[in-house]
Design a protein that fits this description.
Zinc Finger, Delta Prime, domain 3, about 230 residues, 5-stranded parallel sheet, alpha/beta, 2 domains, Rossmann fold
Length: about 230
């Protein structure tokens, strides 16, 4: 049986492989990187039972395959005995154009996609900033960076947070129409800033935004600068 196991959550993929091996009752697992084995050698390994007559359990890591021509591998995989377990493993999500995905029906392969669940929540980050919770703000920022959220997307949400806090502070019509939960939260945050402080933050962030668009501020420093502007007000 052939399995295609791919996606960014490699730990989940590895757990699945271990579980499959346990279900198969096979103690020995052969692992190969696709750059270190030929299609012919892979086929030979897949046809060779161990000393106790157990069929092979093979993991073929194709993460680094890139644009290598997979035709010879596909051809040999079609001939692999049904008793053999071959797991085609990728630590990246394979696109629909990938040779193994395109030929999955031909290979009678079962597919399993393990994507990493986002660990960050940008609203938690924005709330921490405007509650002036420095440690939590940077902790949430680190999660956003790990999830590869763009600094410019984060900046946009900080401006959103600033507008809602300012709306609460100055009791604008939009604040009065907001959901009760939002009104309570932003009203609480607005008490941490004076009228003057909020106006100064708006002006400082406006200047930072302009400089970032002119590439006058290093992208890595952009969000920390904005955070400190709010926290130190």
């Amino acid at each position: 049986m052939i399995y295609i196991v791919h996606g960014e959550d490699l730990s989940k993929s590895r757990a699945l492989i271990q579980n499959q091996q346990k279900k198969s009752g096979i103690e020995t697992r052969l692992e190969f990187n696709i750059s270190d084995i030929t299609a012919e050698n892979l086929f030979e390994k897949s046809c060779s039972n161990d000393l106790f007559g157990n069929p092979p359990f093979i993991v073929l890591d194709v993460t680094s395959a890139g644009r290598l021509n997979m035709d010879s591998f596909i051809e040999k995989m079609e001939k692999i005995p049904d008793s053999t377990t071959l797991i085609i493993l990728s630590g990246k999500t394979l696109p629909k154009t990938n040779a193994f995905i395109k030929n999955s029906l031909k290979l009678k392969a079962k597919m399993n996609l393990n994507e990493k669940a986002p660990q960050s929540n940008i609203f938690n980050f924005v709330d921490a900033v405007f509650y002036k919770q420095r440690n939590k703000a940077y902790s949430e920022l680190n999660k956003l960076y790990k999830d590869q959220v763009s600094p410019f997307e984060i900046l946009t949400m900080i401006f959103y947070g600033l507008r809602t806090v300012a709306s609460a502070k100055f009791e604008s019509p939009s604040h009065k129409k907001a959901h009760n939960f939002v009104k309570r939260k932003t009203a609480s945050q607005s008490k941490l800033f004076s009228d003057t402080q909020l106006l100064e933050i708006i002006e400082k962030l406006r200047k930072i935004d302009i400089k970032s668009k002119l590439s006058e501020i290093d992208e890595e420093l952009l969000i920390p600068m904005v955070i400190e502007t709010v926290l130190n007000s």
